[in-house]
Structures are given as structure tokens and as C-alpha cells.
Write a structure and sequence with these properties.
The chain is mainly alpha-helical and about 425 residues long. The protein has two domains: about 1-190, Growth Hormone, Chain: A, CATH 1.20.1250; about 205-420, MFS general substrate transporter like domains (Growth Hormone, Chain: A). About 85% of the residues lie in helices and about 0% in strands. It has helices at about 1-40, 45-70, 75-95, 105-130, 135-165, 170-185, 205-215, 220-240, 240-250, 255-275, 285-305, 310-335, 340-370, 375-390, 395-400, 400-410. Helix 1 runs antiparallel to helix 4 and helix 4 packs across helix 13. The protein is globular. The two termini are about 35 Å apart.
Length: about 425
């Protein structure tokens, strides 16, 4: 068993390292594209449109993509999605090289790339659960958080460096090469393929089964509701950070850079710490500690005096560190508790709900911040996170979600959910 676990972990690391190269290349290419659009148009609307193109499909079709991932060979989904990313960058390379590029081309390509990412995200989540022994899932989740924070720091730096030494079509070709690096190990490794829970019904029926699976499991409902609420709360402080730095602390671009770098470095540090430590035995406790730390970090930023921006930078570092402790264990928990044959649908649903929560939070926070000020928004969000951390331990279905997940796997997938709804003895 140990030998098999070691072999599976080796397979996973080969795939993961390939995805690291692809993520860095993608972030560098994205930085170059954003800079080109900003320089060409000087339009905030153009930049916002790029963001919409990147986020629209995961929100709209996430559950359907997850249902299809549950039906298909996950390894092939990763190969095809990485291949589509490479194809998109190749198209941009040709358009830049022939000097035929227009802004609408970028919109179309970014929408196409988002289609690939919509399938790549749930497929990689399921592959991780299939290959990584359960006791290492939290460590792997920490590695993923470290990767996220690292690419947010390294990707733009690499993009800026490549802009200084390469034409834009050359930068797009770098992204093609890094995507090919991600595909290469997938061609030579074996990834288990669990049987689909619904081979002969429509994709829409699969989506309904996935929603029913979540709805019938109280602990999973609470977990996903908490994730959506956290995403709703955390995005406004990040989006309002430039105004907080300028209007409250009286800083400029340099100080804003410090705040954003502190956030990214915090995510890297949290991911590294989580990958080494592994978290508490019950993943939900690690997640709740992260929620509490998020609240504390936001409170530090919101309560810092206007003359103490260094205190706010420290608070933002704590916030970034805590996000790794929230997101890492949450995904590890879902990977260990949710049956592999329905994980694609669950991850797709998570992507859709989280994607909807972010703009909703921003839409509400903007007018509220204009009325009460930027600083109180940080305090409100910090208090809300602390309240979540204080109340969630009393939600018994959430606290026993791992035990219920083990029982559910033993008793069947969707049919076994009825046991979880029975009153506890």
C-alpha cells in the first residue's frame, strides 16, 4: 500500500510540476496582454472587459463542465484543456507577428482560454484526489496555495522582463512552450478513472444529481455556504485597497505595491507552512483557524492609524497567510470527503457560486463604502470573518463532515445520503 501511495504521489508531482510551468507562463502572457491593451487604449472599460471574458464562462457553465469531467477521462481533460490554452496563445502569437491583432481578438481568445480553464480546474481537483493519499491532501492544498501566491508575484515580474527582451508574439510562444511542458508528463502517466455515477442520462440530469448530492448533505451545504460568504466578504477589501492606500493612508503607487506584495507573500508563506505542517488532523479546524486569522488581519488593516501604513501592511500579510489556511484545507476536505465520481460536479458548483459571490460583494460594497468610508469596510469584513470562526464550530454537520464522508463512501454515493439526514443519536 505504501509503495502504491508513493507511486501515486510521484505521478501527481510530475503532473503538478507541469501545471506550475503552465501557470507561470500563463500569468506572464496575461501580464503582457493587459499591458498592451492598457498602452493601446488607456481604457478602464477595455481592461474590465478582459476580466469579464476571463470570468464569464466559469460562472455560467461551471456545473455543466463539472458534470462532463465526471463522465470523461480526467487525464484527457487536462491534456485537451492545456492544449487549448496553448492553441489560444499560438493564435495570439500569429496575430501579433503578422501585425493583424485587434483588441476584439484578445477578448475572443481570453473567452476561449476561460473555456479551457473551466474544465481544467475541476479535472485537476479530481486528479489530485485520485492520486494523493488522503493524509497528504492538506499538504498538497498548501502547495497549491503557495503556487497561487507565487504565480501572482513571479508571473507579472516575468511578464515585465519578457516585455523588455521579446516581442509580444515571442511572449505568447513562451506560453505555448510552458503549456506543452504541462502536457508532456500527462502523456506517460496512469491516472485512475472511477466509474461515472450516471452513464446513460443527460448532462443536465448529471448537474441536477450533483446539486441534489450537495443539498442532501447538510455538512457540505454549510461548507459551501461558508466558502461563498467568505468570497463575498474578502473581495471588496482587495478591490478597495488602492482607495484605502490613497485616501486613508495618503500613500501612492509604491505603498500600494507594498500592500499587494505583502498579500502575495502571505499566501506563499501560508501555503509553504501548510505544506510542511499538514494542518490539524481534522481539516475543518485548520480552515476555521484560517477564517479567524483572516478576520484578525482585516481588522488590523481597518483599525491601523492613518500614519501607520506599516501596521496595515503587516495585517495584509496575515490576511494572505490565513487565506492559504482557509482555501487549502477546504479543497482538501472536499477532495477527501466527496466521492470521486461526483467531485467534478461539486467543484464546478463551487466555481460558479464563488464566481457569483465576488461581483455581488463588490456591487454592494462600492456604494456602502462611498457612504460610510473605506476604512469601516475593512472593520466590517474582519468582524464578519471572526463571527464565522466563532459560530461554525457549533454547526455539528460541518464539524463531522469528514466522518460523514467516510461513511458515505462506504454506503454508496447519492443513495447513501439519506443516512446523513437522520437525526443524530
Amino acid at each position: 500500500m505504501d509503495a502504491q501511495n508513493g507511486k501515486s504521489m510521484k505521478t501527481f508531482l510530475m503532473i503538478w510540476i507541469g501545471q506550475v510551468f503552465s501557470a507561470v507562463g500563463t500569468m506572464a502572457a496575461r501580464f503582457a496582454i493587459i499591458w498592451w491593451i492598457a498602452s493601446l487604449t488607456g481604457s478602464a472599460t477595455a481592461l474590465a472587459t478582459v476580466a469579464i471574458m476571463e470570468q464569464a464562462l466559469p460562472v455560467l457553465i461551471g456545473p455543466f463542465a463539472g458534470a462532463l469531467v465526471d463522465r470523461w477521462d480526467r487525464k484527457r481533460v487536462l491534456i485537451v484543456s492545456d492544449g487549448l490554452i496553448a492553441l489560444a496563445s499560438l493564435v495570439l502569437a500569429v496575430l501579433f507577428w503578422t501585425n493583424q491583432i485587434q483588441v476584439w481578438h484578445v477578448y475572443a481568445v481570453m473567452l476561449f482560454r476561460s473555456l479551457a480553464f473551466t474544465f481544467n480546474f475541476p479535472a485537476m481537483g479530481v486528479v489530485t484526489a485520485l492520486l494523493v493519499p488522503e493524509q497528504h491532501l492538506t499538504r498538497v492544498a498548501g502547495m497549491n496555495q503557495m503556487l497561487q501566491g507565487g504565480t501572482n508575484i513571479i508571473g507579472p515580474m516575468l511578464g515585465a522582463l519578457l516585455l523588455a527582451v521579446l516581442p509580444l508574439h515571442g511572449i505568447m510562444l513562451v506560453d505555448v512552450v510552458t503549456a506543452a511542458i504541462a502536457i508532456a508528463p500527462l502523456l506517460f502517466v496512469f491516472v485512475p478513472r472511477p466509474a461515472s455515477s450516471a452513464q446513460k442520462q443527460s448532462v443536465l440530469a448529471d448537474v441536477r444529481d450533483g446539486a441534489r448530492y450537495v443539498r442532501a448533505w447538510p455538512g457540505l451545504v454549510i461548507l459551501l455556504a461558508g466558502a461563498v460568504l467568505a468570497n463575498f466578504l474578502i473581495n471588496p477589501p482587495f478591490a478597495l485597497m488602492p482607495l484605502m492606500v490613497r485616501n486613508y493612508f495618503g500613500g501612492g503607487a509604491v505603498q500600494l505595491g507594498w500592500m499587494e506584495s505583502a498579500l502575495g507573500l502571505g499566501i506563499v508563506a501560508g501555503g509553504l507552512g501548510l505544506s510542511v505542517w499538514g494542518g490539524f488532523k481534522k481539516k475543518v479546524w485548520t480552515m476555521l483557524v484560517g477564517v479567524a486569522l483572516s478576520g484578525a488581519g482585516l481588522l488590523v488593516v481597518g483599525l491601523a492609524p492613518a500614519t501607520a501604513i506599516l501596521v496595515a501592511i503587516a495585517g495584509m500579510f496575515v490576511t494572505g497567510l490565513s487565506l492559504a489556511f482557509v482555501n487549502g484545507p477546504m479543497f482538501a476536505l472536499m477532495q477527501s470527503a466527496v466521492a470521486p465520481e461526483v467531485q467534478g460536479r461539486v467543484f464546478g458548483l463551487v466555481g460558479t457560486l464563488s464566481g457569483l459571490a465576488a461581483p455581488l460583494g463588490l456591487a454592494i460594497a462600492g456604494p456602502v463604502a462611498d457612504r460610510i468610508g473605506i476604512q469601516p469596510m475593512y472593520v466590517i469584513c474582519g468582524v464578519a470573518f471572526l463571527a464565522m470562526a466563532a459560530t461554525f464550530p457549533f454547526a455539528r454537520p460541518l464539524m463531522r463532515i469528514e466522518e460523514d464522508g467516510a461513511a458515505l463512501r462506504a454506503n454508496g454515493t447519492i443513495s447513501g445520503l439519506s443516512r446523513l439526514q437522520e437525526p443524530a443519536e
